[in-house]
Amino acid sequence: MAIARQFATSVGTTATAIEGTQYPGFLLINNGGEIVFIGDSALTTSTGFPIKAGEVFSPSEMAHNSLTGKDSDRLFGRVVTSTEDVRVLLQSRVNV
Q1: What span, in angstroms and rounded, lies between the C-alpha atoms of 24 and 88?
Q2: Which of the four, 25, 28, 48, 92, has the lowest number of CB atoms within 10 Å?
Q3: DSSP E strand boundaries for 42-95
């Protein structure tokens, strides 16, 4: 499989849509120095799934298969203070 595209998102202290997570076959890395919490648009730092600095996240195959490319499928990120850099890499060719 050819790698098709990469995205960068600056995640802040409010729920921030993470570009690229609406497509199947994505890998997400916390490219910053603090924990990034991921989840839906209502996530908080108490309810979000924590991704430590340098950690890579990829959803299960079942979750990947349910992604349609619609903006409503995106994951959201949030941090406690400041902003953190999150990178997404698509592992398959998609129409974006």
Answers
A1: 11
A2: 92
A3: 49-51, 56-57, 76-78, 84-90
Task: Find all residues with CB under 8 Å of 9, minimum gap 6, and list them.
Answer: 16, 17, 18, 19, 20, 77, 85, 86, 87, 88
- Could you state, in order of their start, the residue ranges of all structural domains in the chain? 5-90
Report yes or no: 51 and 87 within 8 Å, Cβ to Cβ: no
The letter for the amino acid at 3 is: I
Model confidence, pTM = 0.88
Q: For 15-67, how does the pLDDT look when each residue is reduced to its tens digit (9 = 90+)? A: 999 999 998 889 999 999 999 999 999 999 999 999 999 999 998 876 777 88
CATH entry 2.60.120 includes domain 5-90? yes
For residue 81, the number of C-alpha atoms closer than 13 Å in the C-beta half-sphere is: 0
